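Sorry, explain these tokens?

___
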Amino acid sequence: MKSIITDDFLLKNPTARHLFHDVAKSLPIIDYHCHLSPELIAKNHVFSDVGELMLAGDHYKWRAIRSFGVAEEQITGGADWREKFRAFATALPYCIGNPLYHWTHLELKRYFDVDEALSADNADEIFDRCSAKMAEGDFSARGLIERSGVEVVCTTDDPLDDLRWHQKIKADGWRVRVLPTFRPDKALNIHKDTFLPYLKQAGVTTYGELLAWLTARVAYFHENGCRLADHGLDFIPFGTGSAEAVFDKVMGGGTATLEETNVFMTAVMLHLAGLYTAHGWCMQIHVGALRNNNTRMFRALGPDTGYDSIAETSVAEPLSRLLDTLETNGALPKTILYSLNPKDNYTLATLMGCFQSDTCRGKLQLGSGWWFNDQRDGMEAQLKALGNLGVLGTFVGMLTDSRSFISYPRHEYFRRILCNLIGEWVEGGEYPADEPMLRSIIEAICYKNAKAYFCF
């Protein structure tokens, strides 16, 4: 059976086809948020076969295979990569409507020139063909990034990281810039049992030492090319009071109440955001994920293994107060707001419009369709919310948010969806068929806005 991936996949009108093929298709990629391993990039890791390349660490695919009733042994367990690939191939044809079906066939087409639809019937044949192609070379971590047309990669890194792998990549003189992103969640989550062990690792014993350590780490990250911070928040904090008193209580063996947690997290967020502003960084805020829902599997496999879901988190009031405090203090950095819950699209899009500035075009951004919204409906909903309530032409575009080295066709997927949506508006008489303007908008959203916004 032929694959669905044709030249005009998802492009349903002439304007869409023109905008994608003649404008968007060949633009470089700036992957400003991902979870690729800098160590694997530094070592230029060579993947053993297509099973490892396609399935290792990819919890999107793991969730689908589990939902098909496959044993964990064939997903994250000890089964070999061929057996795991077979399990995935068996489940995939049933994933109608799931973006995984599109992503997988884009991956097979772009990296292996496979034109067949993957299934149980051809799993072994396709495994062998892909693995043979990999043996020919250019399927290393760096080779895959280069072949994907990537210009910048921003990984996600803990403040404790010494960044030696980023330093090695830079010293090698590789043409793709691989930059760290500052992710200080463990230093903020005073309500979690990871907090005290983390402080011990950092050598921090007082609240003043914590702020001084974070200040020093931001400076170190900046010296090593970092230009973004990222906060993965269980909720948007806002509270007033003595953060130091809360810190001392927890250090003394006490437990922070929700109100105290808000006080502490707010104070640390305000401190960090001021540092980001001083360094010209962008602050990303991710909210709306309910993590590690399955205790049994969390104990067996740990975090980020496919057991997270969408949360119902209230964002409007606390986020408004947080942003307003920063704005009042002259310390609001460039900020991208993401919510995993699509109900928040309009809330975030209207709230960010209250804090824009002439210091930067699109200073506050509505983040791209993230995680469970990383599909056609989710992307279109985000684009329409921003189009309805903001200035779509200032959007910094797509990211992979992935641990997979062959996830870059997600940028192609986004670009096809973007071009098709704009094509629909043009051909429906909602926007003029102005070739220079349309070209400018597509180039900006797919590449130029991100390059300017992040100062890359």
Notes: The mean pLDDT is 96.
